[in-house]
Structures are given as C-alpha cells and as structure tokens.
User: Which sequence fits this backbone?
C-alpha cells in the first residue's frame, strides 16, 4: 500500500465522527493542536471533514475564551488524568484547565485561502480572536505570555521545564493516582514519576481555585515563558491580523491585534540566551534561562521575529545539531545535559515541530535547511511509519504508533510539494 493511502487510513482509523483522536489507547480524546494539524491533513482530500474538526475543537472553548488542551467527550478508563481528576472545569464540555500552543489561526488561514474560504474564516474569526485575547490577558505577566503547566506548552517533559519544576514542591495532600500512559507504552519513552507528581500538583492547585485562570497564572506553582507558545502565538496573531484586514474587520479589532503583535515582538528578546545563541524557556519569577537549544528555538523564522544576529546564531546552532543526528530536528540539544534520544521531549524528533520549523525557514529564505528539516521527518516516516515521534539518531518510531498528526503533516507536504510517489 502507498504511504499516502496508509496516511489516509491512519486518519480514518482515529476518526471519531467530528473529531480525530491522536492514537488509540494512549490518547483517546480530542487534543487541541493535534486537531489543528489533523485538519491540515484532512483538508488535502476532504475539506468538509477538515472543517468539522476545527468546529468541534472550537466547541470546547470556555466562556473566558480559552480553548483547552484536551476535550473530554467521554470518561475513558484507559487515560489518566481524565475529566474527574481535572474537576469542575469551566467549558460546556469537560476538559483540561490549561490550553495548548495556538496554531489554529495559522492553519485556518492556510486551508481557507482565497475568496471561496471567506465564509469559513468569518465563521470562526471571533472565537479565535477571543482565544488569543485570553493568552494576552489571562496568561500575560509584565508583557510576557507565560505558561502555567508543561502540558500547556505541548512539550511535556522537555528538560527546559526542570528549572520551574525544581522550584516546586509536590502537594502534600496530592490524592493518590495510577498512571495509564505507562501501561500503553514503554515507560522509558515517557516522563518520570517525579515529573508526573508535579504535573498533578498543578492540576490539584487549579482545581482548588475553581480554575480561575488569572489566579492560576499569578499564584500557581509553575510560571515559565515558552518559546513555543511565544512564537506560535506571534505567528498566529499575524495570520489573524491578515484575516481581519481581508475581512474588513473594524479598526478597533485590527488595532488590538496589532498591539498584541508589537507586544510579542518586544517579548522575543526576553527569550534570547546570548550564552547559548538560542531562544530558550525562562522561569518568570527567578528570570533563570533554560540550558539548551530545543526544537522550538528556530521558530523565530516561523514567527518572522528576532534580529539578524539572533537568526544567524540560530542557524549556526541548527547546523551544529545537524552534524550530531541522523534526523533533524531533535527536541533537545544532543550536547546538553538531559538529552535522551527516545524519551518523549528529551530528544525525539516531533513531526509538528519539524513542520513549523521547515515552513518558517522556507519563508525566510533558508530553503536548504528547510529541506533538511523536512527530510529528517520524511526519511523517518519512510523508515518506520506514522509514529508520534522518532529517535533522531536512528529514525526509529517512539511512543504512540498510527499517529494522526504525523499522517496529516505527511499528507500536507505531499500535497504542497508533490514530491512523493502518488498512489
Ligand atoms: C499526555 O497525556 O501525555 C499529554 O501529553 C498531556 O496533554
């Protein structure tokens, strides 16, 4: 069977009607940025179904504008922490109490391009605007968009978060729990028990304050700035502004988005580590910088942000890392402490990060590196199939198999470039 057909079959197998799960067993619900990337893949062959994916994601939006990281339409005993552990969250459908990197505006703009997409853009503009507003208000501290949970960044156990996690204590009254992830996959691929205790401590705190998002930001146990959320949101704000302009939205809406963009551009410098020559995470309360180049460090290109010097040093780092791995782009610097080629965000290559990084590099005139980043993923897929992530040293698949966003991104690239053998 062709890879294209396998990719379509993977999406069909994970299709639950109006939304798509990432993979059976390990992740049985709708995840936020997964759904957006899945829509990108679906749009290459079934626009109606792609649009249903986006609408079902938006249905999970809270009254304050947040679109949560997971929408729980059932209570699946195979997954922990499910809806009962998150407690009384505030949307009309049970969900987590944190968000995820807001890729939606960028993907909506891309798949609805042209006059025939105008009605669809109009259908979701206000909800996406409200979500961005939520990031800029409920999650902003002194002009920096913060994050309150490693799960919100989408990069769960990246060593970047150790600074914030080390400053936290596990809640003494943390209710006991049983992890389910380690029943589905090899525990050496997943976060440690100590990390899980801290993840659950933040959930416990959020539940104890009724998921008041401003309090979660100001008083929560973890407060860091994430280059992934920062650059994804900055890019998404720019796409939102472009849509607002095309749609003839009133000046106050356009001015508001322009102000978010100006704020975002100013904040890019906050994440710059001159020692590392890289954009890295920072603990907001202590100011401490993370210690390595990650697979969101080069998203400055995707967001079209950063100075000439910052971009040049980012390229130097990418080239150095290309010499260390078989498959760009590892999630953590192979020269930094904490690199583990198979452990989730401590080393593996992640499809959605390669997608955004390659797109940014391409748009900013770095076509050769963009191709290397694309090939890093495509070669791993050809070798191993549609996995959640891949060992960057060997291309072996890690964690979840038959993975939706991997299939979707592969389809999207095939559609754009027509490079692969078409079925
Ligand atoms: C998980 O369960 O591993 C997810 O990444 C949390 O969003």
Assistant:
């Amino acid at each position: 069977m062709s890879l294209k057909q396998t990719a379509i079959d993977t999406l069909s197998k994970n299709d639950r009607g109006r939304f798509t799960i990432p993979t059976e067993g390990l992740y049985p619900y709708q995840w936020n940025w997964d759904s957006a990337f899945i829509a990108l893949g679906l749009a290459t062959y079934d626009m109606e179904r792609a649009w249903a994916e986006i609408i079902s994601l938006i249905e999970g939006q809270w009254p304050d504008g947040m679109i949560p990281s997971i929408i729980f339409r059932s209570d699946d005993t195979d997954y922990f922490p499910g809806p009962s552990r998150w407690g009384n969250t505030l949307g009309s459908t049970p969900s987590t109490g944190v968000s995820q990197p807001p890729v939606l505006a960028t993907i909506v703009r891309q798949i609805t391009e042209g006059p025939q997409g105008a009605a669809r853009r109009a259908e979701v503009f206000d909800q996406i605007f409200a979500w961005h507003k939520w990031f800029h208000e409920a999650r902003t501290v002194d002009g920096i968009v913060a994050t309150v949970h490693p799960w919100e960044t989408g990069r769960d156990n990246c060593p970047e978060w150790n600074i914030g996690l080390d400053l936290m204590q596990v809640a003494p009254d943390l209710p006991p729990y049983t992890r389910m992830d380690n029943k589905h996959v090899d525990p050496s691929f997943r976060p440690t028990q100590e990390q899980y205790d801290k993840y659950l401590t933040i959930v416990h705190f959020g539940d104890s304050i009724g998921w008041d998002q401003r309090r979660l930001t100001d008083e929560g146990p973890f407060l860091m700035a994430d280059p992934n959320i920062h650059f994804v949101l900055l890019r998404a704000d720019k796409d939102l502004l472009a849509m607002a302009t095309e749609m003839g939205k009133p000046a106050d809406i356009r001015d508001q988005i322009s102000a978010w963009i100006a704020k975002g551009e100013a904040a890019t410098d906050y994440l710059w580590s001159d020692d590392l020559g890289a954009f890295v995470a920072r603990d907001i309360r202590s100011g401490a910088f993370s210690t390595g180049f990650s697979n969101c460090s080069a998203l400055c290109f995707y967001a079209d942000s950063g100075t000439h010097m910052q971009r040049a040093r980012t390229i130097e780092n990418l080239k150095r890392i290309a010499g260390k791995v078989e498959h760009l782009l590892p999630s953590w610097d192979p020269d930094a402490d904490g690199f583990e080629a198979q452990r989730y965000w401590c080393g593996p290559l992640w499809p959605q990060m390669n997608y955004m990084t390659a797109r940014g590099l391409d748009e900013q005139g770095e076509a050769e590196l963009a191709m290397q980043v694309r090939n890093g993923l495509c070669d791993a897929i050809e070798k191993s199939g549609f996995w959640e992530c891949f060992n960057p040293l060997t291309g072996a698949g890690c964690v979840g198999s038959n993975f939706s966003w991997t299939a979707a991104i592969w389809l999207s690239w095939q559609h754009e470039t027509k490079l692969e053998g078409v079925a």
